[in-house]
Write a structure and sequence with these properties.
By secondary structure, the chain is an alpha+beta fold. It is about 65% helix and about 15% strand. The chain has a domain of about 60 residues: Head domain of nucleotide exchange factor GrpE (Nucleotide Exchange Factor Grpe, Chain A, domain 2, Roll). Helix 1 runs antiparallel to helix 2. It is found in: Mitochondrion matrix.
């Protein structure tokens, strides 16, 4: 009888312990769910940060690629700009028939530069205020024009299709009326 009672007591104790364990697991289960939620939020944060980092990386690479292309176009076009300068000087010193031949060739070369390389001629600077971003002053001369006015354009300036200066115009600038 004692054995039976002991077995019954042990069985009853096991059942109570089992219930305690079941009820005790509920806070642990809630805690586990909370841990999973925190892990999920953390993973979402990491994913969002990585997506932003990737977007920044793409933007950086695109900007670097654009800059390399701009530099390559500038480098490729500079020898052609020297040829244009030669056409301009030859046209200015040539007379009659030679001038009539050179002008259309120069115009055609300007068209090719703009269409194929995105390089365009900076509009004439004569009479305009000196702009250090667009002009390179090679001489300062007294004149009737106000100070810092472009008097003469020795070499034309050129811009990229985005408006960046490939080569500034080389100019003579007024120092103002002589005193």
């Amino acid at each position: 009888r004692f054995r039976r009672g002991g077995a019954a007591l042990a069985a009853a104790g096991g059942a109570v312990a089992g219930r305690r364990q079941q009820h005790g697991d509920e806070p642990e289960a809630a805690s586990g769910q909370e841990d999973l939620r925190e892990e999920l939020v953390s993973a979402q944060d990491r994913l969002t940060r990585q997506a932003a980092e990737f977007q920044n990386f793409k933007s950086r690479v695109q900007a670097q690629e654009k800059e390399r292309l701009r530099q390559a176009l500038a480098k490729a076009s500079k020898p052609l700009l020297d040829v244009l300068d030669d056409f301009r000087r030859a046209g200015a010193s040539a007379g009659g028939a030679a001038k009539e031949v050179l002008a259309p060739l120069r115009k055609r070369l300007l068209g090719v530069l703009e269409k194929e390389l995105g390089v365009r001629l900076l509009s004439s600077s004569i009479g305009k205020p000196f702009d250090p971003e667009m002009h390179e002053a090679v001489a300062l001369t007294p004149g009737e024009e106000p100070a810092d006015t472009v008097l003469e354009e020795l070499e034309e300036g050129f811009l990229s299709i985005d408006g960046e200066v490939i080569r500034p115009a080389r100019v003579v600038v007024s120092s103002g009326p002589a005193s």
